[in-house]
Amino acid sequence: MTLFGPAERAGTARVAVERGVDRYPDGLTYAVPRSLVDLRPGDRVIVPLGRGDTRTAGYVIDRHADLTAISDAGAPPVESLKEVISRDPGAISLPPALVELARWISAYYVCPTGLTLAGMLPAAVRKQTGLTSRRFVELAPAAPVAEAAPSAVDPTAPIEIAPPKNRALTATQRNVLEHLRRLGADGSTSSAPIESRLVVEALELGSEATIRTLARRGLVRITQRSTVEAAWHSQLLEAPTEFTPSPAQRSAIAAIGATLGQGFSAHLLHGVTGSGKTEVYLRLFERTIAAGKIALYLVPEIALTPQTGARVMARFPTHRVAVLHSGLTAAQRHQQWALAAQGDAAIVLGARSAVFAPIPAGRLGLIVVDEEHDSSYKQDSAPRYHGRDVAVRRAQLEACPVVLGSATPSLESWHNATVRQVFSLHRLPERAPGLSVPRVEIIDFVEERRRRSREGDRRVHLIGPTLEGAIGHTLASGGQVLLLLNRRGYANYIACPDVNCGWMQQCSECDATMVCHVDVRVRGGMYLRCHHCQGEQLLRETCPQCAKRTVVFGLGTQRVEEELLRKFALLAEAGRMARVDSDTMERSTDLHGVLSRFGSGELRLLIGTQMIAKGLDFPGVRLVGVINADTALSIPDFRASERTFQLVSQVAGRCGRGAHAGLALIQTFQPHFEAIVRAAQGDFDGFAARELAERSEARLPPSTRLARIVVRHEDRERAVATASEIAEGLRSLLPGLSGGSVASGSNPADLAKGPAAGIHVIGPNPCTIGRIAGRHRQEVTLVAPDAAALQRLLAAGRARGIIRPGEEVAVDVDPQALG
């Protein structure tokens, strides 16, 4: 391509291209032509890439006026630098803080900066979905208007406009100018231009040709304004409420409020369910807005957005609230993103990706991460960031406080607050006035089955007699019921009934069983789906090995729904019960509709997955039932106990929020399991102390830091070989890193044998699920005493080309699941 000489250049720009190019994680250097002298970090540009100079989009992440400011290893000489082609037409620039945040994410989570920046900008914004342009017209400042006679003070009097000497104005043109003059569109700074289509309609012109002619003659000025338009469903309505804070709430509000405007600080708000954490947030938002700043409010699930949004909007009726989450339409997402980017929203509310809201520089005053423990904050595709941790980093970059709130804090945040003491801890130990503490009972499901058997009932029931009786009583007395089962579908095992055969239905592309789903539109009414690769097939009627009729067993939300309809006539009536899981809630409007009907009392019972286990506040709920508290305990993951405690505690806290006392019944096959017992007792401190001690002894997070490198390939030998190369390559780097050591073997159990200060490279080993979507999976696990040591190893491996993230190699830093 043609290169400009130094005289035609305005310095250099470092550009992160939107490609999976990790050779230069911090971008490539380009020359900036004089025509783009005002280019700045955050601008989206088009640059030539590769030998063929392919036009490629990217973001400016650094800018230098000095042509010699090149730091790429092996970069071409200054005179040979390729030039930035242009700005990306219509693209919106990212604030500088987001550019810095992307660079941190790229380094910490091992992902190319360009892909990280591209992930920050929603596709709807890049495509300008919903963008409409409107033309406005006003008299040009120099428009030749004759001085008005005394009678011109009458707005109905005709206005004489002197035509240019070289050409007379037509009657239509004079009418247009007179019309603009009367409407006050005189081109002054205090006047407002008129939309051109309104002028056409008022004067019955038929087209804008006359206006365009006047513009060419310099008599009027036409401007174009772009806005984003989107259709919206009705929000859940909530009357504005004002509470008198409890002493504990006042203490938290005062302590956190004192840090507003004082730079970065991190706070953990530990409040039992129903203790009024939301009221603390709202009071802090009031102070933030009063200081002329913007508040960013993150929630983990789309399920929480409508009710939380309604509460915030009711509390701040005179301020705009931007809502950002993946359940919006493309046009809605663009509209709300633009609202945040323009600084017109006082509060930005949304799920995980809202942490990247483009709030103007210097305007962000507070970040709140509600239900900070929730695993939904972790992104499962590159960049595999954790929304909570990114929020903390953004607060550091923006020099503002961040508040992490939860009734069941993550052990990482609890460790930071109580052991490392880098977070300030604030407690709300009691429920807010007017709310009762629910009674929680653990139900031994083995004994429940024996009880039915003694009564002569040998059928399979997912709802035991104790829970069944409580549901009937609650419905009869006018209360509402929430039932939790964190497993969707109908049943999770399809097998041969002959134990000597042993056949079980597995996915042909994954080393995992398939899940049976019910759908009346399918032949036979049932089909199978793999929840890993999403592959589907019809249910086999007979065993392929011995031809015996297959059996379907296990549990799922659909099967519970079927049992409820069979047992309770009231629920069989249309509109009395709803199932809330990812199979039924395909669109955000589906969820909004269900929650609205439940809030109004039309729906009497909700059965669902973890979507209903946290954050929702309905005073009519008198009974909460956990169908099986053991679902997470069977997963080979060191966080299984923590997740079980959190899920049981959170769902139990959904009841007792009205005038009636609440009851939570927890069905389990392990009634003495500590996480379940402590959750029933509401003893988070005791659970956390025991769990942290066990983790520390086993050298597991949060006492250490963890990263997984997963190699995926259709050929198993290739996956093993690549993983082995990565493991050996990283081990070779350890002697040069402070505190580095090699684990004595490839077994994770060997971790405890190494020195406490060491960095350990474990593996390669097969992943828990050895094959997904036809690709074999091998993992290399890295364990380090702290984040700095882990980052040194990852950075060295990346720089040496040992770690090359992409389609075949995935890097997950601080993993939340070990599947």
Task: Write the topology of this structure.
Layout: E1 9-17, E2 28-33, E3 44-49, E4 54-64, E5 86-87, H1 96-108, H2 113-120, H3 123-126, E6 131-139, H4 171-182, E7 194-195, H5 196-203, H6 209-216, E8 220-228, H7 247-257, E9 265-271, H8 277-290, E10 294-298, H9 305-315, E11 321-324, H10 330-341, E12 347-350, E13 364-370, H11 387-398, E14 401-406, H12 411-418, E15 424-428, E16 439-444, H13 445-454, H14 465-476, E17 480-484, E18 493-495, E19 515-518, E20 526-529, E21 536-538, E22 551-553, H15 557-567, H16 569-572, E23 577-580, H17 588-600, E24 605-608, E25 621-626, H18 640-652, E26 663-668, H19 674-681, H20 684-698, E27 705-713, H21 716-733, E28 760-772, E29 775-784, H22 787-799, E30 809-813
Parallel strand pairs: 9-14, 9-15, 10-12, 10-13, 11-12, 13-14, 16-26, 17-24, 17-25, 23-24, 25-26
Antiparallel strand pairs: 1-2, 1-4, 3-4, 3-5, 6-7, 6-8, 18-22, 19-20, 20-21, 27-29, 27-30, 28-29
